[in-house]
Protein 1
Amino acid sequence: MLLIKRVHGRDINIRIEGTGEPLLFVHGFPFDHTMWKHQISCFAKTNQVFAPDLRGFGASTGGEGLGDVVAMEEFAADLSSLLGELSIHEPVHFCGLSMGGYIAWQFFRQHRSQLKSLIVCDTKASADSDEAKQARLETAAKVLAEGSGFLAVAMVEKLFSPRTLAVQPATVEEIQQTIRATPPASIAASLKGMAARPEMSEMLREIDVPTLVIVGEEDALTTPQEMQLIADTIPNARFVQIAGAGHMSPLEKPVEVNQAIGDFLSSLD
């Protein structure tokens, strides 16, 4: 079912399915909760699944102005409060992809008592380089000036493996439609927030919840080497590489990603 909850003055849209231990799926940039459709249908059989649209994305309201910045800490605070509004008092399994992973680090830092385990997919712990920060700010300015449409074209080859681009055109188009529908102000505010996010690499050593690290074998944005380093730094983390997948591994290879998540969750029982 879909619900709207009022959080920090915004309407947050969330899909809730199933019963059992709470499993929270946090989408990447600039998508919405539907990127987790294969995981929602799979894990609703064993867990109570929560898949929100972050503020300003999907059917959630944002209200960001042209110069606004939304920090990763703010997204994490939204999620913490959302769980409270839903009366979820037991710790959750938190699964985030890309920007959802940046939010996961802040959720651990600020809301540790609400966390049972971490699953991070195709993400980074390092802060942006000066060059990467500048690129994000330039993209934010271009989105505000021209709209979201150009991103739907510009991002595709970075998001998917060559094989996915060739044999899963419907998946690619679905993501492009989501990007086109995302308000430019929300995209720009998140780009600025990602550019300003803190360095988290040293903090990884402090993570004291079970952690699964998943990466697409052909991910050019958050490489397997970078993700392996994250897994090596987090105490007792589990690392899984998904063959044939790019940055959008949960959409590109859902069976394999679901198997990895399911095995991980089962190991915690």
Protein 2
Amino acid sequence: MNKSHKVVIGLTGGIGSGKSTITAMFADLGIDIVDADIVARMVVMPKSEALKQISQHFGAQFIQSDGHLNRASLRSRIFSNEQDKTWLNNLLHPLIRQRMIKEIDQSTSSYCLFVAPLLIENNLQGIVNRIIVIDITEKEQIERTFLRDPSSRDEVRRIIASQISRTERLHHADDIIDNNKTDLAEVNKQVIILDQSYRKLAMK
């Protein structure tokens, strides 16, 4: 449970569940967004201390010619090496968490939306007051991800398998947005109802 004065609502969901679309709906209502994926990219920006340590540990070949981290190469490296993965997590996770909390504290909207695809997997529940889970069937996940990024369906299935199950994600939910519908207006209605309840929560 988040102990700060700021009401923080966590938003999570599996790949292809519609996190970006639903996040934009909250932003349109004037809500400040803290996105874990964006923060994770910021802590390894060119010339950052974290990027320097990554270069020293893994080698300069993991830094692109423009000074940015070569994410694909690093992902491949740590995927097959548990020690390297642990080292990287120990370096980055505290930096990411510190920056996320700073951004949440700087939020000025009535509550703050914290978007984290791996909120539950990375045990970030302590940052938030409530958790919204975007619910979608695996069939829809595969279809939508395939439309957005024509990877093989097998690859999409592997990504889904690497995340927690739909059942377990729903077990952690305080609120659920059903995004199996294709009608965005219906999804937006759910967002508006939740927004109103969170504004009331923030006034307590």
Protein 3
Amino acid sequence: MDTIEYKQTLQTTFDKVSSRYDQNSFFGISAKRLAALLPAAEGLHVLDLSTGTGSVAIEIAINYPDAKIEAIDLSREMLDIAAEKAQERGLTNIRFIQADVDELSYPAGRFDVVTCGYAMFFYPDMEASYRAICKTVKPGGQLICSSFTDAAFNPHAELFLHRLKTEYDVSPPGDLKDRLKTTKNWQTLVESSDYTDLEIIEEPIRYPVSVDEWWGLLNSAAYKSLLDQLKPEQLEAFKREHTAEVTAISDNGMIELNSDTLFCKVTF
């Protein structure tokens, strides 16, 4: 899959899941924690990358009412929901923009803070994208990102991916599933550019969900792009097989959803 096709697949997937995306509570929980890492300063100019349904941008707007926030995403459907959420909360300090991270034209040193929640690992040429993003941050400014740990969503995600690969020959593209899952991964990426300070915080985000809710998660996040590669009869069979194996290791149909997260704060 080339870069253009990959990005089109991402955009289509997130358009499809946009109406169900916020059913996943961990997005809201982590957005609050990420927003709490911003510096206590007035008049911040913030860029929120891959904003999705705007969880991070909205938390920042609530906590920093005098901030000016620009929030971008590939998915028009996600942005429409984000804008509706902001309007419902009476927030007027966010501008939502449909844009590709790799085609940003902001001048160097434009932003006090750049945020990126659970998205850096999606960028095809992650290292090049990271270095370009860093240039948009002012000297003394910060880049604050989140990613899932290597334990997140397991063992259930491992069962999901293993069955897809062995029984249906479907796998995530390239090394996507292994990116930015450890402190060392983040350190390696950050060290590819100039910076003055690095802080990486690991925080547990866990709560119980039913097996049906787990299947709902798979259909309301990036995993959906893998399920969409199955034919209808394959999808029906896969759902039956996968939910059966998850039920077998559940506690009366309930599992602990592990969405443990790494928060990476880079100061320039």
Protein 4
Amino acid sequence: MLNARKLFTTWKPRVSPRLYVSAGAVILVAVAGAFAGGSTTQNIEDQGSACANLPNFSALKNALTAATATETSGLNNQMWATIVNRDGVVCAVAFSGVNRGAQWPGSRVISAQKANTANAFSLDASSNSNGSGQPGGLALSTANLYSAVQPGGSLYGLQHSNPVDTSVAYAGPSSSYGTVSDPMVGHKIGGVNVFGGGLALYVKGHQVVGGVGVSGDTSCADHNIGWRVRNLLGLDHMAASGPLPAVPGPASLFAGDPTHPDNIIFDITANPNGGTGNSTSGFGHPTCLNTSGSATLPPVQP
């Protein structure tokens, strides 16, 4: 099997600096224009083909509300959540409180940033071809990225790439934030976040279809609630199933937790030379205020 640790220390991006405009991109723009010109609530609720295979606003809000009520770690705050599709298009944004001010307003965009990150840096079996990639793909939660992006880490600098599109993040009236007509819906948000709360979404067959991001509390609580949201939505099909190998992640590869492959890892010890602590796996996350619960999260599904 491909050594994942080696993968992250030797990988170099193979990206062309040229900008390619495809027919699909033109279609996406046309669809976005149709949303703007028609019945906003109805069109955004189902999002056409761009989000047809993902939960709608109501499903996300119900899952977030249930997950937030279950989790009592951290500050026990209300939360924001965002779902993006595989292309990074925002499909739904919701909050768990009684109004948009009942949870940190700044966490709305952070939740979208986390969803984008987990989707952008997770893979499925389609990534395995011509001698490259792993048979089951590779899942990276935003919690797995903290140590890797520190100075000297194998992914240092990742957090400075793919900035948030502020014209999408802060568009429209604030009264629409966290509703079915949130102005981010139907647009690519961008952004890279490197602490807990973002997870890739896997349907049956272990195919990545997008990401979910949760924000509003400590990053450890964000991760736990995000994990529960993904489980409640039934989008955590990552365990081995028949001929399908399990989708690996840092927790299954380096922390001995095959039932929670992209779970948060607490393996950072103090650096005797000062500065950032040392992570045994290279994918560790700091502990938080009232850290608890990650070891008892629901296992991923086949």
